[in-house]
Amino acid sequence: MTFRISQIAIAGALAVASSPLAAQDTDQLREELAQMRAEMNAMSERIEALETELAETEAAATAATAQASMALATAETASAQATEARVEAEKGPSIAFKGAPQIKGENGWSFKPRGRLQYDAGTISVPDSTGVVDGFGSEARRARLGVSGDMPGGFGYKFEIDFAGNDVSVTDALISYETGNTEFQVGQFNNFQSLEELTSSLHTSFIERAAFTDAFGFERRVGAAAIFKGGDVLVQTGVFTDNMEDLSNKSWSADGRVVFMPKLGDAQLHLGGSVHYTDIEDGDTVRYRQRPLVHFTSERFINTDRLAADSEFGFGVEGAFIAGPFHAAAEGFWQNVRMPGAMENPTFFGGYAEVGYFLTKGDTRGYKGGKFDRTKPANPVGEGGMGSLQFNLRYDRLDLNDAMVVGGTQDGFLASLVWKPTDWTMLLANYGRLEYTDAVFPTATGDRDYGVDAFAVRAQIDF
What we know:
The chain is of the alpha+beta class. It folds into 2 domains: 2-21 and 29-77; 116-141 and 193-219 and 228-462, Porin (Beta Barrel), CATH 2.40.160. The chain is built from 4 helices and 25 strands. The protein has helices at residues 2-18, 26-91, 195-198, 211-215; strands at residues 94-97, 101-104, 110-125, 135-151, 155-162, 169-179, 182-190, 220-230, 233-240, 252-260, 263-264, 267-279, 285-286, 289-290, 302-303, 307-308, 311-323, 326-338, 347-358, 366-368, 371-373, 388-402, 405-420, 425-437, 450-462. The strands form 4 sheets. Strands 3-4-5-6-7-8-9-10-12-17-18-19-22-23-24-25 form a 16-stranded antiparallel barrel. A two-stranded antiparallel ribbon has the order 13-16. The chain starts with a helix and ends with a strand. The model is unreliable at 1-22 (pLDDT under 50).
């Protein structure tokens, strides 16, 4: 704009200068032109100054607007957070459903009722001339109610009572404390004998656990334990007295178990070993015996009877593999009894090997924390599926013959079919052929080597 005004002024000045009438007053015109140039330069500088001031004012206004927008956004965010916090505070404890309501409160509090009901029925077939009562039998195998949960500071608790068999007994009653990778437990709980024993009765593949676990007296005991979990390694160790029902006495035991449980792609490997020592009170005895697969009969076809003992020493090895629908597991356990005086110390053996396969697509056996865990059907009943269906085979051996003790041997050939309609329900059918050597009950001809057939079904629900 300044350049155009200057052009017009110069053109006008030239026009005047070129006029004959202005020739006589050139000096005056030059002075006027110089004065005009000075005024126009001053005007141009003023215009430029005003344009600069205008730009600065616009920039300041833009910055102020941006700051106001940011302040408004911050205020809105703070208001939303305050509203969310108020809603959360007013909401109270959260309730989830895991078979039963699980309530979680502030600061690590949680509470969950728990329970299970297992009802068994079946038959056993024994050679008639043994005189042993056989045929149909049934029982409520387990009927438990309890609670479990967490408390602030890393503490936890579990308490459970069993009402089966017209009797009331405490199963689990423990307090735990967890810090980092280490957990401490005190109370009554399952000490660390084997994979089969530590796997919950809710998740076993057969109606009863392997014969050696019951024969060698594996049970919950009162004691204190430490458990370390680091990556693929699990270490469990503890010192125990006896079951609550048998206290108080002066016997004590120490148990230790180590498990290596790496993932191999999508497959799970389990390798473990355990050692056990029990110091037996003077004058006490031990006895090893076992039923023919099912629990609803009281008959034991192999039995060492009462043995005087100073102590027991046992050690076991265990292995398992899970790959998709397939699983395999095997264990061996040796139980040595130290007899008083010069008597020879017998060593008894128990073990099993099994394989299993899911006939339904997408299902696999559960595994967690060094033991088998809950199977969760990929397509449960109620969601368009039929649940999971699993077929299992097992060979189970128990040998109670050694040194001068003749307790007999039991070789079990077992098959089971397990149907889980949902995560929390199960129907199981189990057949077993038990072959005996040196059985307790002879036939009419004195034969102690014969077979027994057992068939049973179980209906189960838990929460």
